[in-house]
Design goal:
3-stranded antiparallel sheet
Length: 81
Amino acid sequence: MSEQQGQINIELDETIAEGIYSNLAIINHSASEFVLDFVCIMPGTPKAKVKSRIVLTPQHAKRLVKHWQKMSTVLKLLTVK
């Protein structure tokens, strides 16, 4: 194997790198997966479409939650006056 064993070369397409704006997230789950649907809903509009869907294993969802909790703590420390 190469010297970089354990490393993954991840490519980020320009279109994906631009990101998608979302002002609503809908989260569903089962024993085997978590599904995060990201929606952009406009005020006064009764209908919206899912713009992006992310499907995670429970293990990865747990890692994501831990990261958000850590970042929340950091943000609280930065905003304390």
